[in-house]
Amino acid sequence: LANANADQADVDAKAEALTRAMAALRKIPSRDELNKLIAEMEQKDLDGYTDRSVAAFKAALSIAKTVAADANADEQAVAKAYTNLEAAANNLVKAEKPGMGNSGKGSTSANVGNAYGAAGVVSAAQGVASQKAYVVSDTTVNFTLKHGQAYCFKMTVVNGNNMVPSFTVGNGDVLKTQFVARIGNDYYYRVYATGTPGQSTGVYTTLPGQNAVKHCAVTIG
Asked: How big is the CA angle at 91 (ends 65 and 142), to the nearest 5 degrees?
Protein backbone atom coordinates (compact mmCIF):
# COMPACT_ATOMS: atom_id res chain seq x y z
CA LEU A 1 0.00 0.00 0.00
CA ALA A 2 2.89 2.38 0.73
CA ASN A 3 4.40 1.79 -2.71
CA ALA A 4 2.74 4.19 -5.14
CA ASN A 5 4.44 2.42 -8.07
CA ALA A 6 3.02 -1.02 -7.26
CA ASP A 7 1.07 -2.44 -10.19
CA GLN A 8 -2.13 -4.47 -10.06
CA ALA A 9 -0.26 -7.79 -10.24
CA ASP A 10 1.69 -6.88 -7.10
CA VAL A 11 -1.51 -5.87 -5.31
CA ASP A 12 -3.26 -9.10 -6.32
CA ALA A 13 -0.31 -11.23 -5.21
CA LYS A 14 -0.10 -9.55 -1.80
CA ALA A 15 -3.87 -9.74 -1.33
CA GLU A 16 -3.77 -13.49 -2.04
CA ALA A 17 -0.83 -13.99 0.34
CA LEU A 18 -2.63 -12.08 3.09
CA THR A 19 -5.80 -14.11 2.54
CA ARG A 20 -3.86 -17.36 2.86
CA ALA A 21 -2.14 -16.14 6.01
CA MET A 22 -5.48 -15.20 7.55
CA ALA A 23 -6.92 -18.61 6.67
CA ALA A 24 -3.92 -20.33 8.26
CA LEU A 25 -4.39 -18.55 11.59
CA ARG A 26 -5.51 -20.98 14.28
CA LYS A 27 -7.26 -19.77 17.42
CA ILE A 28 -6.06 -21.45 20.60
CA PRO A 29 -8.97 -23.75 21.50
CA SER A 30 -10.70 -23.25 24.83
CA ARG A 31 -11.86 -26.01 27.17
CA ASP A 32 -15.42 -25.52 25.88
CA GLU A 33 -14.22 -26.01 22.32
CA LEU A 34 -12.35 -29.14 23.36
CA ASN A 35 -15.51 -30.54 24.96
CA LYS A 36 -17.45 -29.71 21.80
CA LEU A 37 -14.89 -31.57 19.66
CA ILE A 38 -14.97 -34.54 22.04
CA ALA A 39 -18.77 -34.74 21.80
CA GLU A 40 -18.53 -34.62 18.01
CA MET A 41 -15.81 -37.30 17.85
CA GLU A 42 -17.73 -39.63 20.19
CA GLN A 43 -20.46 -39.81 17.53
CA LYS A 44 -18.01 -40.74 14.78
CA ASP A 45 -18.65 -44.06 13.05
CA LEU A 46 -15.38 -46.01 13.15
CA ASP A 47 -16.52 -48.96 11.06
CA GLY A 48 -14.49 -49.50 7.93
CA TYR A 49 -11.23 -47.99 9.19
CA THR A 50 -7.98 -49.83 9.90
CA ASP A 51 -7.45 -51.12 13.43
CA ARG A 52 -4.28 -49.10 13.82
CA SER A 53 -5.79 -45.75 12.86
CA VAL A 54 -8.84 -46.46 15.06
CA ALA A 55 -6.57 -47.29 18.00
CA ALA A 56 -4.71 -44.00 17.53
CA PHE A 57 -8.02 -42.15 17.32
CA LYS A 58 -9.37 -43.79 20.48
CA ALA A 59 -6.14 -43.03 22.35
CA ALA A 60 -6.35 -39.35 21.34
CA LEU A 61 -10.02 -39.24 22.34
CA SER A 62 -9.26 -40.79 25.72
CA ILE A 63 -6.47 -38.30 26.36
CA ALA A 64 -8.69 -35.39 25.31
CA LYS A 65 -11.36 -36.50 27.80
CA THR A 66 -8.77 -36.71 30.57
CA VAL A 67 -7.48 -33.21 29.82
CA ALA A 68 -11.00 -31.76 29.56
CA ALA A 69 -11.88 -33.21 32.97
CA ASP A 70 -8.67 -31.94 34.59
CA ALA A 71 -9.39 -28.59 36.24
CA ASN A 72 -5.64 -27.95 36.48
CA ALA A 73 -4.93 -28.51 32.78
CA ASP A 74 -3.38 -25.36 31.33
CA GLU A 75 -3.98 -23.72 27.95
CA GLN A 76 -1.11 -25.61 26.34
CA ALA A 77 -2.45 -29.00 27.46
CA VAL A 78 -5.95 -28.17 26.18
CA ALA A 79 -4.57 -26.99 22.85
CA LYS A 80 -2.40 -30.11 22.49
CA ALA A 81 -5.31 -32.44 23.27
CA TYR A 82 -7.52 -30.60 20.76
CA THR A 83 -4.90 -30.65 18.00
CA ASN A 84 -4.01 -34.31 18.51
CA LEU A 85 -7.65 -35.42 18.51
CA GLU A 86 -8.35 -33.42 15.38
CA ALA A 87 -5.26 -34.90 13.70
CA ALA A 88 -6.19 -38.45 14.74
CA ALA A 89 -9.63 -38.01 13.18
CA ASN A 90 -8.10 -36.71 9.96
CA ASN A 91 -5.63 -39.61 9.93
CA LEU A 92 -8.25 -42.35 10.08
CA VAL A 93 -7.45 -44.74 7.24
CA LYS A 94 -10.09 -46.63 5.29
CA ALA A 95 -9.57 -50.39 5.42
CA GLU A 96 -9.24 -52.03 2.04
CA LYS A 97 -11.81 -54.67 1.24
CA PRO A 98 -10.68 -58.03 -0.21
CA GLY A 99 -11.07 -58.09 -3.97
CA MET A 100 -13.34 -60.52 -5.79
CA GLY A 101 -11.10 -62.90 -7.69
CA ASN A 102 -7.72 -62.13 -9.24
CA SER A 103 -7.68 -58.61 -10.64
CA GLY A 104 -4.02 -58.85 -11.57
CA LYS A 105 -3.20 -55.77 -9.50
CA GLY A 106 -1.64 -57.72 -6.65
CA SER A 107 -1.85 -56.79 -2.97
CA THR A 108 0.24 -55.25 -0.25
CA SER A 109 1.22 -56.44 3.21
CA ALA A 110 1.33 -52.86 4.47
CA ASN A 111 -2.39 -52.88 5.28
CA VAL A 112 -2.19 -53.46 9.01
CA GLY A 113 -5.96 -53.28 9.43
CA ASN A 114 -6.66 -56.43 7.41
CA ALA A 115 -5.01 -59.81 7.58
CA TYR A 116 -5.84 -62.54 5.08
CA GLY A 117 -4.67 -66.12 4.89
CA ALA A 118 -3.67 -68.03 1.77
CA ALA A 119 -7.34 -68.63 0.94
CA GLY A 120 -8.21 -64.96 1.40
CA VAL A 121 -10.04 -65.56 4.67
CA VAL A 122 -8.93 -65.42 8.28
CA SER A 123 -10.88 -65.99 11.47
CA ALA A 124 -11.39 -63.20 14.00
CA ALA A 125 -9.14 -64.93 16.50
CA GLN A 126 -6.37 -65.28 13.92
CA GLY A 127 -6.72 -61.63 12.96
CA VAL A 128 -6.28 -60.48 16.55
CA ALA A 129 -3.37 -62.80 17.21
CA SER A 130 -1.53 -61.65 14.10
CA GLN A 131 -1.71 -57.95 14.96
CA LYS A 132 1.74 -56.60 15.69
CA ALA A 133 2.16 -54.59 18.86
CA TYR A 134 2.93 -50.89 18.44
CA VAL A 135 3.04 -47.66 20.41
CA VAL A 136 0.71 -44.68 20.01
CA SER A 137 2.06 -41.35 21.27
CA ASP A 138 -0.20 -38.54 22.48
CA THR A 139 2.16 -36.15 20.71
CA THR A 140 2.97 -36.70 17.05
CA VAL A 141 3.79 -33.15 15.91
CA ASN A 142 7.17 -31.46 16.25
CA PHE A 143 7.28 -28.69 18.84
CA THR A 144 9.59 -26.30 20.68
CA LEU A 145 10.43 -26.54 24.37
CA LYS A 146 12.15 -23.69 26.16
CA HIS A 147 15.43 -24.41 27.92
CA GLY A 148 14.74 -25.53 31.48
CA GLN A 149 11.14 -26.57 30.82
CA ALA A 150 9.73 -30.10 31.00
CA TYR A 151 7.13 -31.96 28.95
CA CYS A 152 5.30 -35.22 29.62
CA PHE A 153 4.57 -37.81 26.92
CA LYS A 154 1.90 -40.49 27.14
CA MET A 155 2.79 -43.66 25.21
CA THR A 156 0.07 -46.28 24.77
CA VAL A 157 1.00 -49.85 23.88
CA VAL A 158 -1.54 -51.42 21.52
CA ASN A 159 -1.81 -55.21 21.01
CA GLY A 160 0.93 -55.82 23.56
CA ASN A 161 -0.42 -56.06 27.11
CA ASN A 162 2.83 -57.34 28.59
CA MET A 163 5.23 -55.31 26.49
CA VAL A 164 7.06 -52.35 28.05
CA PRO A 165 8.35 -49.70 25.62
CA SER A 166 11.83 -48.29 25.90
CA PHE A 167 11.70 -44.48 25.75
CA THR A 168 14.71 -42.68 24.31
CA VAL A 169 15.79 -39.47 22.60
CA GLY A 170 18.30 -39.13 19.81
CA ASN A 171 20.60 -36.79 21.71
CA GLY A 172 20.83 -37.03 25.48
CA ASP A 173 22.55 -33.63 25.65
CA VAL A 174 19.40 -31.96 24.27
CA LEU A 175 16.75 -33.72 26.37
CA LYS A 176 16.97 -35.67 29.61
CA THR A 177 14.35 -38.39 30.07
CA GLN A 178 12.52 -39.71 33.12
CA PHE A 179 9.98 -42.49 33.59
CA VAL A 180 6.94 -41.11 35.42
CA ALA A 181 4.25 -43.77 35.75
CA ARG A 182 2.41 -46.69 34.21
CA ILE A 183 -1.38 -46.96 34.15
CA GLY A 184 -2.52 -50.10 32.37
CA ASN A 185 -1.02 -49.98 28.89
CA ASP A 186 -0.30 -46.24 29.19
CA TYR A 187 3.28 -45.22 29.97
CA TYR A 188 4.19 -41.67 30.97
CA TYR A 189 7.65 -40.23 30.35
CA ARG A 190 8.97 -36.75 31.03
CA VAL A 191 11.66 -34.92 29.08
CA TYR A 192 13.65 -31.94 30.33
CA ALA A 193 15.06 -29.35 27.93
CA THR A 194 18.75 -29.20 28.83
CA GLY A 195 20.21 -28.30 25.45
CA THR A 196 20.96 -24.92 23.97
CA PRO A 197 18.45 -22.95 21.87
CA GLY A 198 18.30 -24.22 18.30
CA GLN A 199 19.28 -27.79 19.12
CA SER A 200 16.79 -30.50 18.18
CA THR A 201 16.39 -34.22 18.73
CA GLY A 202 13.93 -36.99 18.01
CA VAL A 203 11.75 -38.83 20.52
CA TYR A 204 11.58 -42.61 20.11
CA THR A 205 10.06 -45.74 21.60
CA THR A 206 11.20 -49.31 21.06
CA LEU A 207 9.22 -52.44 21.85
CA PRO A 208 11.05 -55.71 22.58
CA GLY A 209 12.17 -57.35 19.36
CA GLN A 210 11.23 -54.35 17.21
CA ASN A 211 13.01 -51.38 15.69
CA ALA A 212 12.85 -47.91 17.20
CA VAL A 213 9.93 -45.72 16.09
CA LYS A 214 10.22 -41.94 15.96
CA HIS A 215 7.16 -40.05 17.22
CA CYS A 216 8.22 -36.41 16.89
CA ALA A 217 11.14 -33.99 17.22
CA VAL A 218 11.70 -31.44 19.98
CA THR A 219 13.62 -28.21 19.42
CA ILE A 220 15.07 -26.16 22.24
CA GLY A 221 13.71 -22.61 22.15
From this structure: 80
